[in-house]
Design brief:
Elements lengths: L1 H13 L3 H14 L4 H13 L3 H14 L4 H13 L3 H14 L4 H16 L15 H7 L1 H6 L3 H12 L4 H4 L3 H11 L9 H8 L33 H25 L3 H14 L5 H12 L3 H18 L3 H18 L6 H14 L3 H22 L2 H16 L3 H14 L4 H13 L3 H14 L4 H13 L3 H12 L6 H18 L5 H12 L2 H8 L1 H12 L1 H7 L3 H12 L7
Helix pairs in contact: 1-2, 2-3, 3-4, 3-5, 4-5, 5-6, 5-7, 6-7, 14-15, 15-16, 16-17, 16-18, 17-18, 18-19, 19-20, 21-22, 22-23, 23-24, 23-25, 24-25, 25-26, 25-27, 26-27, 30-31
C-alpha cells in the first residue's frame, strides 16, 4: 500500500501537482515511516512549492534514516538554498559528495550555492546582536523602542534581521534601527532627533491642538433607597444545621490549637468531632490527616486524604482543598518509601495535586520525590563489576568502529557506576567519531570533574574544541592538562596544532571563506558577545584605530590583552 501511495505521489509530482504529491507521499510515510525515499520525495515537493522549512525538515529526516545516501544531501542543500542559508547548503552538498564524488547534481548544487554565497553582502558583527533571546524584552523595556514595536514595518525589519543577520547594512539608515542597536548594545548612539525631541529642545509644545470645552454635567441624582425585604422564617432544621456548622468550626479551632502545642491526641479528638458535626467541610479531614502524618500513622493519613478527595469532588469543594489532600497523601507515601518503586504512588499523587492547583510547595515535593527515586534506582543498580564488563564490551565495539553500539555499552556502564572517569572519556571519543560534539564535550567535562588528574579527559576535551574550531579554548584545555603531566605527548601535540591555527589567523593567512566561518563561529560565543557589548572594550577598539599610543597602554592590562587575543583568534579583529 505504501508503494501504491508512492507511485501516485510520483505521478502527481511529474504532472506538476505538488500539493497532491505531498498528500500521497504523506500517506505512504504513515504506512512506512522508516522509508527514506518517501521523505526525500516529499522534500522535493515542498521545495517546488517554496515551502523550504518543511522541505528542510523532510531532508533532515532523510539523512537521519540513511546517512550514506547522497540524494538526501542534495535535498538538504536545496532546502538550505531556498532559505538563503548558503553556508549550510555548501556543507550539505560537500557531505553528499563524500559519498558520491561523481554526482553531477551535487556538484552543480554546490557551485550554485557557492556563487550565491559570494554574492551576499559581507557579514557584519552587529547583525548577530539581534539574535539574542532577550531582544524583545530589551526593546520593550526602553521607552522609545517600545513605541517602535507598535509600528509594523519596524517589527518586520527586526524579524528579518533575526532570520538574516547579514541584512543589517540594509537598515542602518533607519534611525529606529540605530536606536534599537544602541539599546541592545547598552550604548547611547547619536541619532537625528525626532519631531517630539526637537520640540522639547526648543521649549515648544509637541501638540498645539486645544482641547474642546467639556459640557457641564448635570448633578447626579441620589438613588431612592429600596425598602428592605421582610426577614424570612428559617426552618428549625436549617437553624440546627447552622448551629452544628458553628460548633464544628469551634472544634476545628480547638484542634488547631492542640496541634500547635504538639498535643496530637487532643487534636485528633477535636477534628473527629468536627467531622461528625459537619461532613461538608473537607478541611477537618485534611487537618486530621496532617496530625496522623506527624504521628507517623501513615495509613490513617492516606485514608483521611482519600475521604477528603472523594467528598470534595461530591461537594465540588475548592480545588485548592482537593490539591492539599492529594499533596498530603503523597507526603505520607514518601515517608513510607523504602525502595525506588515506593516513590511511584507519591509522585502520582503530587502530579494529580498539581493538576488541581499549581502550588510551588507541591512542585518542590514532586521534584524531591523524583530525585529521591532516581537516586535510589542508581543505588539499587550500582554494580562496579558489571560496569567494568560493560566498559570492556564498549571498548571492543570501539575497536571495530561500531560507535553507536559502543556508546550503548558505555552508557550502561555509567548506569552501573557513574563515577568512573574512564567511561566518560571513552564515550566522549565515540561521540567525537560520530560528530556529536556537544555530547562529547559534556562527557569530557564530566571526566575532568570526576578526576582532574586524568589527563585523557583534557586531550578529549581539547580535541573536540579543535573540531569546533575554538582553538583558543582548546589551547587553554591542553595547557591545563600539561599542568598535570608536562611530558604528555598527546597534549603537547594539541598545543602545537592550536598555536599554528591561532598564528595563521594572526598573520591573516585565512581564506575569505575560512575567515568568514571563523567570525560566524566567534559571534556565537557568549564570551565574544560580552566583549563586543562592553562599552569599555568598544572604546579600546576605537583607540586601536584612532589612537595607537593609548592602545599600547591598554595592552599592559592582562585582562584587556586576553580579550583582544580572543577577538583576534575569532577573526573579529585582524592584526595588520
Amino acid at each position: 500500500m505504501a508503494d501504491e501511495a508512492k507511485a501516485k505521489g510520483n505521478a502527481a509530482f511529474s504532472s506538476g501537482n505538488y500539493e497532491e504529491a505531498i498528500k500521497h507521499f504523506s500517506e505512504a510515510i504513515d504506512l512506512a515511516p522508516s522509508n527514506h525515499v518517501l521523505y526525500s520525495n516529499r522534500s522535493a515537493a515542498y521545495a517546488s512549492l517554496h515551502k523550504y522549512d518543511e522541505a528542510l525538515q523532510d531532508a533532515n529526516k532523510t539523512v537521519e534514516i540513511k546517512a550514506d545516501w547522497s540524494k538526501g544531501y542534495s535535498r538538504l542543500g536545496a532546502a538550505y538554498v531556498g532559505l538563503g542559508k548558503y553556508d549550510d547548503a555548501i556543507s550539505a552538498y560537500k557531505k553528499g559528495l563524500e559519498f558520491d564524488p561523481t554526482n553531477e547534481g551535487l556538484k552543480s548544487g554546490l557551485a550554485d550555492a557557492q556563487a550565491s554565497s559570494r554574492s551576499r553582502p559581507s557579514a557584519s558583527p552587529f547583525g548577530n546582536i539581534f539574535q539574542g533571546p532577550e531582544l524583545w524584552a530589551k526593546l520593550t523595556a526602553d521607552p522609545k523602542t517600545r513605541l517602535f514595536l507598535q509600528q509594523p514595518d519596524f517589527v518586520k525589519m527586526i524579524q528579518d534581521l533575526q532570520k538574516n543577520p547579514n541584512n543589517i547594512n540594509l537598515y542602518l539608515s533607519d534611525q529606529r534601527i540605530m536606536q534599537a542597536l544602541g539599546v541592545l548594545l547598552n550604548v547611547n548612539l547619536r541619532t537625528a532627533p525626532s519631531d517630539e525631541d526637537a520640540s522639547e529642545l526648543s521649549g515648544m509644545d509637541s501638540y498645539k491642538t486645544t482641547s474642546k470645552p467639556q459640557p457641564k454635567r448635570e448633578p447626579e441624582r441620589q438613588p431612592v433607597p429600596e425598602p428592605e425585604p421582610e426577614p424570612m422564617d428559617i426552618p428549625e432544621e436549617e437553624k440546627e444545621k447552622q448551629v452544628r456548622k458553628e460548633n464544628a468550626q469551634k472544634e476545628k479551632e480547638a484542634g488547631n490549637a492542640a496541634y500547635k502545642k504538639k498535643d496530637f491526641e487532643t487534636a485528633i479528638h477535636h477534628y473527629t468531632k468536627a467531622v461528625e458535626l459537619d461532613d461538608e467541610d473537607i478541611s477537618f479531614l485534611t487537618n486530621r490527616a496532617a496530625v496522623y502524618l506527624e504521628m507517623q500513622k501513615y495509613e490513617e493519613c492516606i485514608k483521611d486524604c482519600d475521604k477528603a478527595v472523594e467528598r470534595g469532588r461530591e461537594l465540588r469543594s475548592d480545588y485548592k482543598m482537593v490539591a492539599r489532600a492529594l499533596t498530603r497523601k503523597g507526603s505520607a507515601y514518601v515517608k513510607m518509601a523504602k525502595c525506588s518503586k515506593d516513590y511511584e504512588p507519591a509522585i502520582e499523587c503530587f502530579q494529580k495535586a498539581l493538576t488541581e492547583h499549581r502550588n510551588p510547595d507541591t512542585l518542590k515535593k514532586l521534584n524531591d520525590a523524583e530525585k529521591a527515586k532516581k537516586d535510589l534506582e542508581q543505588q539499587e543498580y550500582f554494580d562496579p563489576k558489571l560496569a567494568d564488563e560493560e566498559r570492556e564490551k564498549g571498548n571492543e565495539y570501539f575497536k571495530k568502529q561500531q560507535y553507536p553500539e559502543a556508546i550503548k555499552h558505555y552508557t550502561e556502564a555509567l548506569r552501573r557506576n557513574p563515577n568512573d572517569p574512564r567511561v566518560y572519556s571513552n564515550r566522549a571519543a565515540c561521540y567525537t567519531k560520530l560528530g556529536a560534539l556537544p555530547e562529547g564535550l559534556k562527557d569530557a567535562n564530566k571526566c575532568i570533574e570526576l578526576d582532574p588528574a586524568f589527563t585523557k579527559g583534557y586531550s578529549r576535551k581539547g580535541a573536540i574544541q579543535e573540531f569546533m574550531k575554538e582553538y583558543d579554548k582548546a589551547l587553554e584545555t591542553y595547557q591545563e592538562g600539561l599542568k598535570k603531566d608536562e611530558n604528555n605527548q598527546e597534549l603537547l601535540d594539541g598545543v602545537r596544532r592550536c598555536v599554528q591555527q591561532i598564528n595563521k589567523t594572526n598573520r591573516g593567512d585565512l581564506s575569505p571563506e575560512e575567515l568568514k566561518e571563523r567570525q560566524a563561529k566567534g559571534m556565537q560565543d557568549p564570551e565574544i558577545q560580552n566583549i563586543l557589548t562592553d562599552p569599555i572594550m568598544r572604546q579600546i577598539l576605537v583607540d586601536f584605530q584612532e589612537n595607537p599610543a593609548a592602545a599600547q597602554n591598554h595592552l599592559k592590562n592582562p585582562d584587556v590583552m586576553h580579550k583582544i587575543q580572543k577577538l583576534v583568534s575569532a577573526g573579529i579583529v585582524q592584526v595588520k
